[in-house]
Amino acid sequence: MANLNLPDPAAKPRIVVVGGGFAGLNFVNRIDSHRYQVVLLDRHNYHTFAPLLYQVATAGLEAPDICGPLRKTFRGKPDFHFRMLQVHDVDPVARRVHTGAGPIDYDHLVLATGTRANFFGNTNIATHAFPLKTVPDARRLRNQIFQTLERADLTDDPAERQRLMTFLIVGGGPSGVEVAGALSELRRHVLTHDYPDTPMDQLRFVLVEGEEELLSTFSDRSSREAYRNLEEMDVELRFQTLMTDYDGRTATFRDGSTLECSTVIWGAGVTGEIIEGLSGESLERARYRIDNHLRVAGYENVYALGDVALLTNDEWPRGHPGVAQVAIQMGRRLAENLNNIARGRPTKAFRYVDKGNLAIIGRNRAVADLPRNLHFSGVPAWFVWAFVHIFYLIGFRNRLFTFLSWVGNYLTYNRAVRLVLEPTLDEELREEGVDAGNRPGLRGPATGR
Ligand SMILES: Cc1cc2nc3c(=O)[nH]c(=O)nc-3n(C[C@H](O)[C@H](O)[C@H](O)COP(=O)(O)OP(=O)(O)OC[C@H]3O[C@@H](n4cnc5c(N)ncnc54)[C@H](O)[C@@H]3O)c2cc1C
């Protein structure tokens, strides 16, 4: 068998899992590694709790608070092996995947690679916008937010300051709503105090959405609540508005209008993280088509789980929602089924149990749609949201630290993590030819503003 320094699985079948997100993690957790050798491959050596990425981007939490090191998570699991590798392609005939460090053979392959930002082929937007899919994305966005404000504090050109202080959020789904709400709270409780020389009334957060409402996958009541809350928080909302281009300074919309802005936060679309090599028939809408036993169409021993999988049935004719619960439940179902196969027991078809939808908008502001048409908003929904998110974080350390950070932030209205960790401001100013002679320096006391 092709190796990568793995022990010979001897008589046991080898399962290769690609992706240590919600689906891969829950699969590995449940699979019986006395009966299978389990090899997990991920390009990162940690699991990311994506629902809290916006908190890292807006200085509420640090990256390690929302990540779990994969080796540590499965330390002690027998015949489990992790390799930090990007998988490039699959050869289903040879039953082999190719990685940067060489090939590895499998008996069963589990694809749980999630999604990546979709810029719909627009290279300008891909170059200049800030997606929020990974920890490096969140840290990059945090640097951008604080560095841009530092820049705004240096200029005495009002038009340039207005451009710098205009942030555009594209997409009114849960991520867009959560980021917009968090930025608005940051303005109110932190930035106003931290930047006394910068006119905070110029700081604009504009959220554009192509459809007619926010949170379109939630109940109408939650959509309306989100709208009301964001309006109260001075987020400018524009509906039926599609951004068609962004060159790093000017966003252009389909109706021809434009907006000068320093930062575009992209939450408008994702596409499946597809690994080359499987037949075209197994793909639909950039997802692997799977049956109700989670097998990729056309393959007996290749499975797909979570966001990268497309499972349609009468209940979900357009496929299941791209949420953590679907990935978790798929991971657990497949593990149980493979365990049952190994024990000569029957398998069960996957059926999604919808536990509802939660979104946070700000302090004491959240919406929760629960099964049986139960709906909460405001303080109760905020507490449900906080409890659920702490409960699902991996690891005691993460739960404890996140809980303590939130209690601290809640009591003090503070955001501790507002550090620019990879400063590029000086370099940028130099590149733009802003030398000591014409640098937009501090305003002298005589000129005022
Ligand atoms: C900002 C944000 C907020 C969200 N908020 C919520 C929320 O509040 N509630 C909710 O239910 N859902 C939320 N989601 C969606 C939720 O995170 C996803 O549904 C869930 O992560 C899907 O799990 P997954 O295992 O399919 O993929 P992921 O969790 O994305 O994991 C995929 C893994 O595969 C790895 N990988 C990908 N390609 C390769 C490759 N070629 N080689 C090696 N490794 C690879 C990646 O590094 C990653 O670790 C949010 C998502 C984002 C981005």
UniProtKB/TrEMBL annotation:
Check the record and name the SUPFAM superfamilies matching this protein: FAD/NAD(P)-binding domain
- In this chain the FAD/NAD(P)-binding domain maps to 14-331
TM annotation in the entry: 374-394
InterPro entries listed in its UniProt record: FAD/NAD-bd_sf, FAD/NAD-binding_dom, NDH-2, NDH2-like_C
Picking any one GO molecular function of the record gives: NADH dehydrogenase (quinone) (non-electrogenic) activity
Domain External alternative NADH-ubiquinone oxidoreductase-like C-terminal: residue ranges: 355-411
The keyword Chaperone appears for this protein: no
Kindly state which keywords UniProt assigns to this record, in alphabetical order: FAD, Flavoprotein, Membrane, NAD, Oxidoreductase, Transit peptide, Transmembrane, Transmembrane helix
Give the E.C. number(s): 1.6.5.9
Does the record's keyword annotation contain RNA-binding? no
Q: Which reaction does it catalyse?
A: a quinone + NADH + H(+) = a quinol + NAD(+)
The entry sums up its family as follows: Belongs to the NADH dehydrogenase family.
- Protein known as: NADH:ubiquinone reductase (non-electrogenic)
Organism from which the protein derives: Neolewinella marina
